Each structure stands twice: as structure tokens, then as C-alpha cells.
Amino acid sequence: MTDGHGLDHEVVIVGAGFGGMGAGIEFRRQGVDSIAILEREDDLGGTWHVNHYPGLAVDIASVTYSYSFAPNPHWSRLFAPGAELKAYAEHIADTYDLRRSMEFGVTVERAEWDDHGGHWTVHTADGARRTCRYLVTATGFLSQPHTPDFPGMDSFAGEIIHTTDWPDGHDFAGRRVAVIGTGATAVQLIPELARSARSLTVFQRTPIWVVPKVDFPIPSAVQRLFERVPLTQKAARAVNTSMLEALMVFGVLHFRQAKPGNRLAALLSKAHLRLSVRDAGTRAALTPHYDFGCKRPTFSNDYFRVFNRPTVALETGSIARVEPDGLVTADGTRVAVDTLVLATGFNLWDVNFPAFTIIGRGGRDLGAWWRAGRFQAYQGITVPRFPNFLTLNSPYSYSGLSYFTTIEGQMKHIARLFGELRRRGVDRFEVTEEANDRFLQRATRNLQSSVFYAGDCSGSRSYYFNQHGEATLLRPDATLTTLREQARFPLSDYAYS
Ligand code: NAP
User: Which domains does the chain have, with CATH numbers?
Assistant: First the structure.
């Protein structure tokens, strides 16, 4: 089947998570029906399909962590468990009739722009290739698991489990478990493992700021109210989003101007730690020595308390090697382990930007170009010399704290751009070098006030920073600014043909 112009598809979207589905919904709204959504996993939902470790839940309240145009009145809690997000993704795919465009188990390895033909050729791992007019990457920020390669890892006689590859129903009773990592995933998982493991050792390299999570079941009366009077859920969303925005804008992006707000958040976390952990030495070890917001902070009521249990130990020595039955730290401490859990996160900057080889006009290799120069993308979505290409998970694209803010801004961008293509009766766009430079310069300037540059992030090892030491993940704009610009960017920022 072709799109009517001899191409296999009008649009290929890579990734069937919330980003890819948002793009699919927008293209359908624009009247494009020839869409293929290619997904390497065996089902839709992106991160919410891949991750199903115990304790998984959203850490942005569900009224905000969802599409504004598709509210779900049935969230069971303020912070819904992961399975509800997966179910919501399925509901969205059905509601917007996206499933018929989806192909699972298809891994894209390479895409090349054909300037003469005005199309992309997409190569997949099965050796097949397909052509499309427009290419959209929606491959996620946190989708390439990071597995550290400690000396001796191969010799480990027990089980090694990465949190993205969780064996459902696995019984940890009687096991001597080690968890490596103390990021958001570990903070959710550790209290669950501590319940059943015979012993649990948490290997922490960098402590994380943890603030209390004000979470509760949403009463059925409120769910009914949300269902019958959608305006009430909209209001709840607006209040929650504003609170997150205040935290993000004043605590992180305008750190220079609003230091007291940032300090207050750090004090809240320290008070939480003080009230939760009895042992002063453990408290000291769990206290971060970088500014709040350098790393994505996390929310939990039970993470800190776990360290009061006699069966749980915090180990801050660096891991020197793995032996068949345990881990050895640099100072020679030996910890007996039979189950090793890697809560070691994701590799963003080496392998994920972009997630596969993308060759644009004149043979420009996107990944090589980003790495050799600076990571950049106009409005966090398009790149010069990459015609008809939209990159949803790109430098400076992440706006606000809820990923849905980013997605919906990008949907607005697509709507404006494709509206203009239709108006002109053309089918090719490319952002100008000048517009891209302007956006990059502004982002660079705005970031100078952020905690990343005006604060102390030196010991944070934050994935917000790329390998050049630049904080190029977050868009340094207020959410409303982002949404306004995505809907009203100057049309002259693109060349059309
Ligand atoms: P992460 O924040 O990158 O944390 C990885 C952890 O592994 C860090 O503590 C890191 O230590 C440690 N680590 C990595 N390599 C190591 C090594 N060689 N030796 C020792 N320690 C090592 O990853 P994550 O916890 O999976 O979370 C990633 C992001 O996913 C979060 O920031 C959040 O945005 C998102 N997330 C969201 C939710 C939610 O909404 N419910 C839940 C989970 C995750 P260093 O800090 O020293 O590098």
C-alpha cells in the first residue's frame, strides 16, 4: 500500500508511547491517514509498557500527567500506579483509532533523506526498507537502559535484573538483594523490595533529593464528579500544573532570581530526611551536596524510612568488582548478594540522541553533528538540513515537569507547520539556520539563570547535562511561553518547497 505518491507512507512515526501517539493524533487531525507507527517493543505505551517494576507510579499527579484533551476521570489515586498509565495508553490508542497504524517488534536502525525524491527511506532491523514523506522520532528520553559493566559482572552466579526488564511475580523472600542506584526508579522500588528480601543493600553513588509525596486514593464521589462535570477535573489540573510550574520556573529555571524558593525545597527534603531516618550517619550519607533541581528530584514517603530497618543497609563505597556471590567495594568491603538489581537508569547522550542513525540533506549525520558541535533543535522539534523531520525527544524539547506539556506543545507545532504546508500547497519544510541559531542562543542565554549554571551542580552527575557538560535537555521557558511559541512561531522560520 502506498500514500498515493508512490511512497509507502505519508508519515512514519518511530515510537508508540505517549509522544508518538500524540503525533499520530495530530496528524489524523491534519487529515493525514497514511501513517505508520513503528515500535520496537511488542505493545504500545512506551515507558509505561516497558517498566512494570513493583512500586511503579507516576510522580506527577495524574490529573496533569495525561493529555489535556483526553482527561481520565477514573484515576484511582492522585499519583496513579504504572498499570493505570498503561491502560490509559491503550484507551487513547482505541479512542483515536491509532492501533491500525501501529506495527510492533519493528526496530528502526537508520533513516536517510532523499533530496531528489523528497522523501525519507527508513531501514528496519529485519532488513526491510520503507519510504515516507515525513519522519517523526518519538523514541523517548529514557528508553536506552544503562547497564554498568563492573569487573567480574559475568562471573556473578545469581540473578541480574535491570528495572526495565522486570520479571513479574518474582519472589524476593529469603533473597540477599543489592540495588545499585538511587534515582527515581530505585526510590519507588526499594521500599517494595525491603518488604520481602532477607537483606537489602542499597549501593548509592550520589544521593538524591527526596520530598514527601502527598498522595491519596481519589474517592469514587470525586471520580464521578470528574466524569459528570469535566470542568472540575480541568480546575484540579490547572491548580496542580501551576504548582509544578512554580517549582520548575522559580526553583530550577530562575534559580538566580529566586534562590529562596530553591532553598526552601531543599529544606523541606532535609526536614523529611530528619523526621524519617534515626541514624545520624545514614542521614548524612543520604544528604545531597548539590543544589535542589540539578537532578530531577523525587517524591516518596517511605524511601527514607526503609533505612531504619535492620535488614536494609546503605553502602556508599564505590563498587570495585562483582564476584560470583557478592559485590566488593573499593575499600575492600564485601557484601554477600544473590540477586543484583540494576536501577542504573538510562543512557541519554551517547546512544539516545538520536536513537538510530539519521542522515539528512548533504549527508549530515544528526548524531555525529550534535556530538561534534552543540546539541540543538529549533523549538525542540526541528533541525536545519533535516527536511520533513520532526524530532520529539530532542535537545531543549522537555518543557515543564509533565511530559504531556512537551507533547501538547509539539502537537501545536505540527498543526501550525502542516497548516502552512497546506495553505501553500507544498509538501516540504526545513527550518532555517538563522531561526535555529536564534533559538539556540536564546536557550543558552536563558539557561544562565538556571540552577544548572547559577547553582552548584558539580557533584550531581545529572542526566540533564550532556557529555560536553551542557544542560541541553530542558527547555528554559515557562510552560505558557512554550505553548504560545509552539502555536505561533514565525512561519518565516521555515523554508517551504
Ligand atoms: P537515574 O535517575 O539515572 O538513576 C540511576 C541511578 O543509578 C543513579 O543513582 C546513578 O548514580 C546510579 N548508577 C548508574 N550507574 C552507576 C554505576 N556505574 N555505579 C553506581 N551507581 C550507578 O535513573 P532512574 O532512577 O531510572 O530514573 C530516570 C528518570 O526516569 C527519572 O529521573 C524520572 O524522570 C523518570 N522516572 C519517573 C518515574 C515516575 O514518574 N514514576 C519513575 C521512575 C523514573 P549517579 O547518580 O551517581 O549517576
Answer: 9-144+348-496 (3.50.50.60), 153-213+270-290+300-342 (3.50.50.60)
